[in-house]
C-alpha cells in the first residue's frame, strides 16, 4: 500500500462515496478505505443478524421474522426527491445503471392530531382536508402564484420579488394560516425549522417548485427509493469509482492521519503501512479532534405487520410532523418502506422515526409518531451525535463531512456534497441539467 494518491477517502458513508465517485470520474487517483467490513458506514443497510448483533448484543432474531437474507434495514432513513440534486448526481455519474428504484407511495403531513396527504398544486389544495373552504381558496391562489412566478417577468410577481421579500411577507400577502404555513414550509419546502420565514423567499419558492416537479414526474409522491435499501447507494458509487481506477479497501483499521511540519496532511497509516496523498476526505469518526458535536438525533427502527393507518394501505410513505404541531423546536420524521422494496420479509413493514433530541427523555419525544404507527412488533432505538467540522479543511487539506441529520430526505446530504466538493477542488460542482441528461440518455 506504500503508494501515492491524489485523494484518500476514509469511511464509505454516502457522502464520502459520492465524492470518491465524482473525483475518480474526473481523473483523480483515489484510495478509499473503511474500518468496517461493509459499505455504507452510518447509512448502511443491515440484515436481521446484523441488526440483532448491533442492537441486542448478538441475540438471535425471532424465527417468525423469516429469512435473514430477506432483510436490508436502513440505519438512517432517507428518500430521494425525484427531481432533486441527489437523483441528478446519480444520473450525472451514471450510477443508476447499478440500481433499481421504486416510488414512495405517499407523502403525508401531521396536523391537529391526524395525517393528510400533502397537497402539491392548486388542484390538490382545493381537495385537501387540511384546510377549510376559505383557506383552500387562499392556498389555491398561492400555488398558482408559485407555478406562474418568473423572475424575468415582473408581471408574474404580484408585487412579490422573491429575492427581496421574506416568506413572512408572502404568507401575509396570501393570508395563509399558520397550519398551512407549517405544511408548506416543512412538508414541501423541507425546512428544518422556522428560521426560513424571515429570510428571502427565493430559496423556499425554489424548494416548493422542486417538490411540485418531483410530484409531476411520477405522481403519488415526490420521492423514490432504491430496492434492497440505501446500502446499495454507496456500493453503486464505489463501483463507478472503481471503473475509473478508484481503489477500495474494507475492514482496514486506520492507525493515524499524517501531517508534514507545516501542518498539511500527507496521508494515512493503516495497519502499519503508509499511503500518501495531499488531500484526505473523511467522516468525523476518523478525525474526532476536527469535528464538534452540535446536536443529538434519536432514531427508532420499528418492525410492523401492517401498513400505517390512514394512508390508504400504502406500501411506503413519508410523514412529517411539523414542530409547531407538537410544540417542539424541530420536526419529527417517519419513513416507511416494506417488502415491496426488498428490505424485509413479505407481510412486514419498516418504519423509521427520527428527530433531533430536545429533552432528557428522548424516546418520549417520539410519542406522537408512535401513536400514528399502531402496533410495533419490535424496535431498535439509537441516539447518536450530530457532528460538523470545526474548520473548512483548507488549512490542512483534511475535509470532514457532516453527520446525517434527522431528516428523511437527501437534500441536506446534497448540500454537504456541494460544499465539500468546492472546498476540495476550489470550483463549484456543475451537474448536468435534466435536459442534458435526457439528451445523453437518448444518444445511448
How would you summarize this macromolecular structure in one to three sentences?
The protein has 444 residues and is an alpha/beta fold. It has helices at 14-25, 48-55, 85-92, 122-127, 133-148, 167-174, 178-188, 202-218, 232-243, 367-373, 411-425, 434-443; strands spanning 7-10, 30-33, 45-46, 73-74, 80-81, 101-103, 106-111, 114-117, 223-226, 247-249, 254-259, 265-270, 273-276, 280-282, 291-304, 317-321, 332-338, 349-356, 378-389, 398-400.
- From the alpha carbons, calculate the radius of gyration and give it in angstroms: 22 Å
Low-confidence stretches: none
Overall shape: globular
> Helical content, roughly?
25-40%
Q: Could you say which structural class the secondary elements and strand pairing correspond to?
A: alpha/beta
Number of separate structural domains: 3
Number of helices: 12
Under the CATH scheme, the architecture of the largest domain is: 3-Layer(bba) Sandwich
Multimeric status of the protein: single chain
CATH class of the largest domain: Alpha Beta
Q: Please summarize the sheet with the most strands.
A: 7 strands, mixed
